[in-house]
Amino acid sequence: MSASNKLKKAVEKVNDNFANINISLLDAEQAAANLQEVWNNIYSKIDTSAKELANIKEGTKLSTFKIQFEKVINPWRKVEDLTIQLAQLFNKALEEYKKLETSISKPLI
User: Fold this and answer.
1) What is the pLDDT, as a whole number, of residue 105?
2) What is the pLDDT of residues 9-35, one digit of tens each?
3) Considering only CA atoms, which of 65, 68, 39 is closest in space to residue 52?
4) What SUPFAM superfamilies has UniProt attached to this entry (predicted)?
5) CA–CA separation, 93 vs 20, rounded Å?
6) What does the alpha-carbon distance between residue 109 and residue 1 come to, in Å, rounded to a whole number?
7) Which of 11, 68, 74, 85 is 20 to 30 Å from 55 at the Cα level?
């Protein structure tokens, strides 16, 4: 294969990789926006819960509050698992990017 063909293939590969990185970054940006919305919602629920808790004077109301609060907290166990998976995915993507960066810096000839 001639040097110009090698260069052409390398440029095409880099272009494809940058396109994939761009898509991944757009997905990450959307995920971050969604996460911000979730955190805002959680903050609001915690703030409301704290105000409700301050006004509870009876055991039955406390039990009801506990059940309602658990409904807010329990889904976060799944979020924790998903967050771990997402972090692993980002780490894998970073490793792939580093491999790509290393292969780009190698001489073509």
Assistant:
1) 67
2) 888 888 888 888 888 888 888 988 888
3) 65
4) Bacterial hemolysins
5) 11
6) 10
7) 74
78: helix, strand or coil: helix
3-state secondary structure of 74: coil
The Cα–Cα gap between 60 and 66 comes to 10
**pLDDT one-digit tens code per residue, 54-91:** 888 888 888 888 898 888 888 888 888 888 888 888 88
Query: What amino acid occupies position 43?
Result: Y
Domain borders along the chain are: 3-105
Cα separation, 95 vs 97, whole angstroms: 5
100 neighbors 17 (Cβ within 8 angstroms): yes
What's the whole-model pTM score?
0.48
Token duo for residue 84: 């771990």
pLDDT attached to residue 109: 56
